[in-house]
Write a structure and sequence with these properties.
By secondary structure, the protein is an alpha+beta fold. It has 14 helices and 24 strands. Strands 1-4-5-3-2 form a 5-stranded antiparallel beta sheet. The chain starts with 5 loop residues before the first helix and ends with a strand.
């Protein structure tokens, strides 16, 4: 039988492909860079140079306990010396791989682009980017880089075309999946022939909208497969906002949660173990004298707010960095527990929509938390003030809702811990200089085990008007009780009205019931904040109102998960179900429950799992 017989062709092709794959699968690590224009340079020890040094220390944190796969940071106040930066690690990389890649990238980019204000470095495991112009949430496809596997698919034109068709088809599916994924990535494999698979991975920066992610990936997708790397068995394309890759071998490795090193668990509680419980955060400790000097001895003029367990002060560290200082009330047994809870949680969490913990102080009776300074105060400062509401146009409100949703999704599903916030409300949403939302105040948060779906407590903590009925009445809480609070927030953002202060002529219910009443009457525009009534995005606002009402449904099982919520917010191709009636609270403050609606402070209750009228303040 001749060697060119079809019976020998498949095994021979498989051997040839294997020989081709081996050298390229194990080749040197890829890296490339872009140094921007020669017109945008900085000098040594200039303001931008110092800001850039601090920025690189923030986005390549070799000291952090954990690290997210995406983050962006801003350092500085006055353009053009503000340093904007972000990193994106490949979706399959563990935290340690991501951290090591960023440490290398920050050193190499400084060598490659020693005086450039704008620079990008791409490598196998991560992308690092910075500039003196803000580029967050902006889709950019230039400059781009591509690299092709040196192996050829086949010398036959028909075989090449069939391969390109398989790859483009796979990429089409990946683009759709990634643009609808909260983390903006997708991977899969497809069969090229009966024995050979092709593997693909696409990824966008997480600050892009779903539609921008889709456009970014499609811009160069066909050219990458058919033109840049036509006829090759693999290739990659990298842009500032997205990247794609395909190979004949499985170049990625997605891990189970057991592969990721776990942060140490806190020791069992004991009166003598306060410091032991946070020993893993020793590197974050700041001495009391430094904090005292930063806040001018906690001067009243530095006070910017009052939380449930103490005051919040603005401060400036010796290096000029602004900070927010949360000083817990002395002698508060509750505050001590919430303090340890917040340190343990925030030291492990990193996400652009969560407020960042910079340090803490535990000296004598002082229990102090130090956060990044967020200049625009909290959402309620703007939302519920008739003179400031106008600063929140629909685009801004839409961005805030999306940021809160992404932050909550991270807490519920995407961090290594499953965390229930339990006190999500407008005053706990901080706004940075670009009005991006940052969730704060984790003093009441609870960690769930991987397979745990709900828990029960005799100690009800939270804010009336934001608590789900099953939690307020029976002490049951879950991710869905956070979803309820999120729904209340969405309806407050749309209406500009506070739920627990709602009053409308001729209507006796709360804000949720008023929203339902207008929805049922098919007059949703009556519910919308008058300053938004003439918005060209009326249909989008109504869609968000629908999502808010789905989140506040009385039956827990009918509320969407935060994963579904984020998909609904990002993709208009998803049809929304009709909501059911929300729970009805007869009065703004239940009998026996003391609440101050003007400040919406958090409350602590004792509950005997009886109706809410028998809840007693402790």
């Amino acid at each position: 039988m001749p060697l060119n017989s079809p019976i020998f062709e498949a095994p021979r092709m498989a051997i040839i492909l294997l020989l081709l794959l081996v050298p390229y699968a194990l080749g040197a690590e890829y890296s490339s860079h872009y140094c921007g224009s020669n017109r945008t340079t900085y000098t040594l020890n200039s303001t931008y140079y110092l800001n850039l040094l601090e920025l690189l220390s923030l986005i390549s944190p070799d000291h952090a306990l954990t690290i997210d796969l995406f983050s962006n940071q801003t350092v500085g106040k006055s353009p053009p010396d503000v340093a904007y930066g972000l990193y994106l690690c490949r979706a399959d990389k563990l935290a340690n791989d991501c951290r090591n890649c960023l440490i290398t990238a920050s050193k190499e980019i400084a060598k490659a682009c020693p005086d450039q204000k704008h620079a990008i470095r791409w490598s196998d495991d991560c992308m690092l980017r910075y500039s003196n112009d803000s580029f967050f949430s902006k889709m950019e496809v230039d400059p781009f880089r591509y690299e092709c596997n040196k192996g050829n698919v086949s010398s036959f034109e028909g075989e090449r075309k069939r391969f390109e068709k398989v790859v483009v088809g796979m990429m089409e599916e990946l683009v759709i999946e990634a643009s609808n994924h909260s983390k903006k990535y997708a991977y899969k494999e497809a069969m090229f022939n009966s024995t050979q698979k092709v593997f693909g991975l696409v990824q966008c920066t997480e600050d892009l909208s779903g539609s921008d992610c889709d456009r970014c990936l499609r811009t160069h997708m066909n050219r990458a497969v058919n033109e840049f790397c036509g006829g090759k068995i693999g290739g990659r394309l990298l842009t500032p906002s997205c990247n794609l890759r395909y190979e004949f071998y499985e170049f990625y490795k997605f891990h189970t949660s057991d592969d990721e090193p776990r942060a140490p668990s806190p020791p069992e509680s004991s009166k003598n173990k306060d410091k032991d419980e946070i020993v893993t955060e020793q590197s974050l400790q700041i001495d009391f004298k430094t904090i005292e000097a930063a806040t001018r001895n906690f001067h009243e003029d530095n006070k910017v707010g009052e939380g449930g367990f103490g005051g919040v002060y603005e401060g400036v560290l010796p290096n000029g960095r602004k900070i927010a200082v949360k000083r817990l009330s002395k002698g508060s047994g509750q505050g001590a527990q919430e303090f340890k809870n917040e340190v343990m949680l925030l030291a492990k969490l990193q996400h652009r929509n969560l407020v960042r913990l910079l340090g803490f102080c535990l000296e004598a009776e002082e229990k102090i938390l130090i956060y990044e300074y967020v200049p625009n105060k909290s959402l309620d400062y703007f939302l519920f003030d008739p003179t400031k509401q106008g600063q929140l146009d629909w685009t801004t409100r839409c961005k805030i809702i999306g940021g809160i949703a992404r932050g909550m999704l991270y807490l519920h599903e995407d961090s290594r811990l499953r965390i229930i916030h339990r006190d999500l409300k407008a005053s706990n949403i901080l706004l940075d200089e670009e009005m991006n939302a940052k969730i704060s105040d984790f003093g009441m948060a609870r960690i769930f085990c991987v397979n745990q779906t709900q828990a029960r407590t005799n100690r009800i903590v939270g804010t009336f008007g934001y608590m789900s009925p099953e939690y307020a009445m029976h002490g049951k809480f879950s991710t869905q009780s956070d979803v309820f609070s999120f729904g209340v927030l969405v309806l407050e953002i749309i209406s500009g009205k506070r739920n627990n202060e709602f009053c409308h002529v001729g209507f006796s219910g709360d804000l949720l019931c008023y929203a339902w009443d207008q929805w049922r009457k098919e007059t949703p525009l009556e519910f919308i904040d008058p300053s938004l009534a003439k918005s060209i995005a009326a249909s989008e606002i109504i869609r968000f109102m629908n999502i808010g009402l789905l989140c506040v449904q009385k039956r827990v099982e009918r509320r969407p998960s935060m994963t579904t919520v984020v998909s609904m917010l990002n993709s208009y191709s998803i049809a929304l179900p009709l909501p059911q009636k929300p729970p009805f609270f007869v009065s703004k403050t239940s009998k026996g429950a003391e609440s101050n609606p003007s400040t919406t402070q958090s409350m602590v209750w004792s509950v005997d799992h009886s109706p809410i009228s028998q809840v007693h303040p402790r």
